[in-house]
Amino acid sequence: MRRCACVACMTCVTRKRGGAVDASREEILTVVESLALPASPEEIADAVDAVRVRARPRLTEFDDPGACVTAEAVLGLLRELEESGQVKGYARDVWVGLWVDPGRTVRPTGLLWWPVSKWREAAGHRVQPDLAKIRREEEARREEERIERQSSPGFGWGKTWEKVLWDAEHPYEGLDPL
After folding, report:
1. Which of 51, 81, 94, 140 is within CB 3.0–4.6 Å of 87 for a Cys-Cys bond?
2. Where does the source fall among the domains of life (predicted)?
């Protein structure tokens, strides 16, 4: 059983039993764009219901809360929006692989939907830290190689041997002429 989004009446309405209300592509797209994280069709349907409840006047206990939008109807509209290139639908692990934190969802195994514009924005934020991270890793690797070369046993002896050879070739270098 799911409760309707109306806080005033708190009447339980099942999505399967209650009469389904049609939603438009624009309404679904507006709700999806307002979400901070990718969401399941059920969460999007709940958000559409909440938006509709906020848009109508306050209900009394005698008013009919109205029917809810079904997750199946939302999923159909999301697939249409995906075909038109306005939203992306991926499984939770794919979103994580794309470095987008989907948060906690109702159905972690189903597809999670998010607008393409927010996905591109998240991808842009993801690229910049990667370049900085690559630079830091490269500098750290060079520093480690330098330290390893200098701390190797042959490095100290090599410097000492070079100094001995140079002193042998230049016996009077560095001496005071007086």
Report:
1. 81
2. Bacteria
Which letter, b or e, does each residue of 98-134 get, where b requires 16 or more Cβ atoms within 10 Å of its Cβ?
bebebeebeeeebbbbbbeebbeebeeeeeeeeeeee
Distance CA 110, CA 77 (A): 16
- From residue 46, how far is each of 13, 31, 50, 58, 100 by CA, in Å? 12, 10, 6, 18, 22
Per-residue pLDDT reduced to its tens digit, 96-135:
777 676 666 655 557 777 788 877 777 666 656 666 778 8
What is d(CA 132, CA 173) in angstroms, rounded to the nearest whole number?
48
d(CA 34, CA 37): 9
**DSSP symbol at 35:** -
Which positions ≥6 away from 22 have C-beta within 8 Å? 69, 73
Q: Are 31 and 48 in contact (CB under 8 A)?
A: yes
pLDDT score recorded for residue 143:
92
Rounded Cα gap, residues 74 and 172, in angstroms: 91
